[in-house]
């Protein structure tokens, strides 16, 4: 294999694993100059494999599509269990925001089986399609630009649309939760939409499986302490439990996956 082709494969592997790598990090990891890495990133960006971003590279459309398909097939049992817990906490006749992500699609499926007369506002075209099958639901999909990779609707128009409403619940997920409770994601446009949902909901629920804890991303959404309840598939680590307890945030775990089932201070 030619050295450049091998280097490109190594760059793709590193970015796929970390989701973002700076030029300097890649140069050090592969023992080449930053100028070489920049040229490689330009080539891979033209092929939509990577995307140039703030002095480095993040995943492009090709890799994002692969990862999204992987997310759809991964930890589905855990996501379904989290979704069942969330559905138990939302009453009939409620209004709610549902955000982007496969966990939110599981939540929509659980709600359809359990709850009547919901009013759902979502920027997830898959959630909208699923929920609209119920003739007692009012389903509103936001305006904005549809991402072909995951069916998410984002952008300034989406934020403006969300700001027209005040709902009972905002239900969302995120890519990463750092040790200090910071919530992180990759797309600043998606983060802006989720922040608008948080600001326009009376109660906020966060659903994240255990893989999201201590996972990194680029854009800060907020803090885990800004939510009323956190739903996950494993009990958080002791340090995270202290953060949640200090903020009086309840965390809930499915009884058949981990114990205790909930904790609040």
From TrEMBL:
GO function term, MF aspect, one: DNA-binding transcription factor activity
SMART domains: DeoRC (SM01134), HTH_DEOR (SM00420)
Domain HTH deoR-type: 4-59
The keyword Transcription regulation appears for this protein: yes
Species of provenance: Neisseria animalis
Record-given protein name: DeoR/GlpR transcriptional regulator
Superkingdom as given in the UniProt entry: Bacteria
PROSITE patterns with a match to the protein in the record: HTH_DEOR_1, HTH_DEOR_2
